[in-house]
Amino acid sequence: MNRIPHPISAARIAVIGAGPGGLVCARVLQRHGLDVTVYELDASPTARAQGGTLDMHPDTGQHALRAAGLWDAFAALARPEGEQWRLVGRDGRIMFDSAPPEDGRGRPEIDRGRLRGLLLGSLTPGTVRWGHKLDRAEPLGDGRHRLYFADGSTAGTDLVIGADGAWSRVRRLVSDAMPVYTGVTFVETGLDDADTRHPELAALTGNGTMMALDDNLGIVAQRNSGGHIRVYLGLRTPEDWHRRAGIDPADPDAVRDALLERFTGWDAALRAYLTTTDTGYTDRPLFALPVPHTWERTAGVTLLGDAAHLMSPLSGMGANLAMRDGADLAQALLDHADVDEAVTAYEKILLPRSAEAAEGAAGALDGTFAPDGAAQTLAHMTAHH
To answer: What is the pTM of this model?
Structure first.
């Protein structure tokens, strides 16, 4: 029995997840006259914090913003000065300090929340259906699916795009793969109004990102807008390190004391990142999908972003790749008359690119949180700046 073609012009396209990749995809499709609906589990755009800052890479994030017709609007919000990178030894000595490129051709930073706001504001009102948590997607045959949401509503699709992140429900339609713990945990904390309230740490952080590394440990301090500095205290440690140490993660004093013990012998200026907090401590174990993560072509469904290639954040590629995925998928849908042909063309680009990036990200994580993490990172920074 021959497959019934699904012409793009009449296709019901559903994007699951209103992250950067899904929103770029929707924006490019709408910009060229195609209908699309985005379903997001958050109750509203402000339901939760969107995380730290992102540097937009020329061939991925920047490419996607240009495809979406949003480059100028992005440039008005970006922080080119945030490209500064600083590497510090455990003794507080600055080992490497790079200034942003003067030609403006670098990787300007933008807060995740501002980027999401920019993308949301570019969509036709009503495109995003807030408070729609996908429960399951059932194949109906010939590439069509019925989406079932936690609020009891349903929707039919000719193409369901899984942009629903690390623990994607859409991924179950094409793959049994699940994220696994990488062996590294970040404990997140933060400083508010840092230049006024915490001037010494603000000066050590600089205008961009400061990394201090040694012996499978790391401190990453990252400038955000509004005077905020987001701090990640990295540990190569078992995922259940709290339980093994008898620590309640909700007890900030106990977490602080445990971290201070881990970072014994580090310079006092760096240890101040552990003890000075305006936000408390949040445990963030890092997960990644197996490399390579591939799947057989499945009619009426595809993935982008973390749903397709969850990887370590150390490479800075996650959101950038998700946005390029979204732009490439939208362009494939515009370039082909049939949904299945478009998705086949897209996945031929997506899968090898994802595998290469994820392999690089795994290597970056292993090199950073290593006994000689500072030396490996210094060699990498010197080679790439």
So the answer is: 0.93
